[in-house]
Amino acid sequence: MLQATPLTEGWILRHEGAGLPAVVPGCVHTDLLAAGVIPDPLLGRNETEVAWVGRREWTYETELPETNGHEQTDLVFDGLDTAAEILLDGQVLGRTRNMHRSYRFDVTGLSGRLSVRFVSAYAEAEAVRGRVGERPAAYAEPYQYIRKMACSFGWDWGPTLVTAGIWRPVRLEQWSTARIARVRPLVTVEGGLGQVELAVEVERTRVEAPLAVEATVGGVRARAEIDGTAGTVRLEVPDVRLWWPRGYGEQPLYDVELTLLHGEQALDVWRRRIGFRTVELDRRPDAHGSGFTFVVNGERLFARGVNWIPDDVFPSRITRDRYRERLRQAADAGVDLVRIWGGGIYESEDFYDACDELGLLVWQDFPFACAAYPEEQPLRGEVEAEARENVVRLMPHPSLVLWNGNNENLWGFRDWEWEPRLAGDSWGEGYYLGVLPRVVAELDPTRPYTAGSPWSGSWDRHPNDPAHGTHHSWEVWNREDYADYRLQVPRFVAEFGWQAPPAYATLRRALPGEELMPDSPGMLHHQKADDGNGKLRRGLERHFAFPEGDFDRWHYLTQVNQARAVAAGIEHWRSHWPVCAGTVVWQLNDCWPVTSWAAIDGDGREKPLYHELRRLYADRLLTLQVRERGLVLAAVNQAAESWNGTLTLRRMSVEGGVIGESRVGLAAERRAVAHVGVPRELEPVGPKEFLVADADGLRALRFPSPDRDIPYPRPEFEVALVPGGIEVTAHTLVRNLLLQADRLDPAARADRGLVTLLPGERVTIGVRGWQTPDAETARSALYCMEPHR
Questions:
Q1: N- to C-terminal Cα distance for the chain?
Q2: The pLDDT of residue 69
Q3: Per-residue confidence (pLDDT) for residue 236, from 0 to 100
């Protein structure tokens, strides 16, 4: 039987001639940090002090032990970051130039000093650029010339920390006669009958040895002979239980085991978990353009999505538990789709395992983002090799529902002045419309492929045409008010978002000793977006009086504005289902403490936006929308059952009085949206009025005027301790009440975000991690809308 031995002990990192202890898997930055050679690059402005690390060559060394008892021994690297030379006692075993691939070297009968020498990723990228010529990109760094995580070179939310190292596991594999080289599982289901086709490739030491494979799944067993180096075993599993996205059903998973046999001797075993489900992408033309609707097991979905970036600037630090925590946060917010963005990585098995179990659909970008990518060698061969490996690696996961060619590169070619600058040079189109769809069609025909995001489906239309395919909505954040989200009904919104700073405790940890102000040195360093603070300010000034000199108020209002902006988009687009079939918020997570579009900050703390997503992505949502015929209440019902109830509409004054009231019946079919017209006499007028809509414990509010014009009363409320949290009782209108629990204790978390209370209403806010509860202290951490100062 194949024997795998992790090679994790005894590694050192060569630094100025000395050997520092090294952790494998890991990277140079984390080893230097552990040895005290560099400061924490995520704190203060230390990022600039460690820039030299990415420009240096680095060598990892250990002893390769003697092995015996098997015919072949392989040295296997699951991931090397990125351009490296592997040597044993000074003799070259091989060279690598792709972070996204694994590598295998024959070391049979060998032992001695193993060295992995990494050249600077800058040096490798600049050398390739010298061979293939300049290509335009959104950023000045040379990330498009090397098959490496692009955002390691910095992004508009991330630091420039160009890594190197053995970033995924390394091991010795000893085997005899033959081993399993690759298993490509095709999993289909029809009429309750599950079908599993396992295409097996083997590597041999003995050509003449007769081989067979035996597979089991769901109590079914099948056997097939290996002809040379390949074979296929097929299994039919009756009465399978379907795997569903969260909110639509359960997520049953089936263990698959495939054993390679020589006679009755087991040589190698391959084990995975699979799920039975169908997935289609409906892109048919219709009266509104051409759609982009996910259909799982015949059920059409409005995708409630988030964009995912690497959860740490040093991905080797992300543990299985951390993946599960972050993805559990997503699921708890009502998310059912996670898009793995193209400037990052193909994630580890731990990520997809968690998505399988949680019912989170995965949209996987191939790693291309915001740049023109050369199609010449050595890159072209690397691109196809990595695609082939990762498509097969990820195929078992039922959560994976879409392969996407790139992020914004088709759009960039058309709109970002790339075409004239390229003057006919290759830029990646051959990957997105040629190589990648060919690889997916050959290896994984059960899943849809789309050439890019955004992509209208044809060069006959603008790549970012909202009426066709996927759309990225960034004009709003960059130049407009978030109310302008309501001016369009895209078929599928794959990116949109609004910035806000991280939690207060996150900032205090990241910027020790700094007096916090929006434009203080550390705050500016941890704001990577072009004119980010200017856009935050202009976004605030459209709605609020800007709180000059008051950091705490600025911090609160920017977080309110982020939640409101995203709510404006999602409420509008969900109310237009099925024309609009999904929203994917930019972004779920952060890789360090930074002002960004994230709902969960770099320390894992939920911003108010996170809690707002729980409301926006719930199965049922009430929203007040302006239509041509006037104000309407849209009852969005994504639940499996119809929604019948009573809707209460109240026109109120900000002083708390009820000006008019009405009760009407509410009926929304399953997976549908119902619209109820608001009587003209109940529509609020001017800054002193607003409308409240209530049904089945859900609420929608409409304030027709911006906050800066609303004469809010001075908020009056009582705060009392209750088991597990606090209770707030309002005596006036209290709009957008927020408990910043991390101000009570850095470990404290609240179970809800922004809440608006009418006079006489009360709310219980659960708080965990607060060691010394006190009502007056809690009051000091409560923020809400106040009268103009």
A1: 76
A2: 87
A3: 97
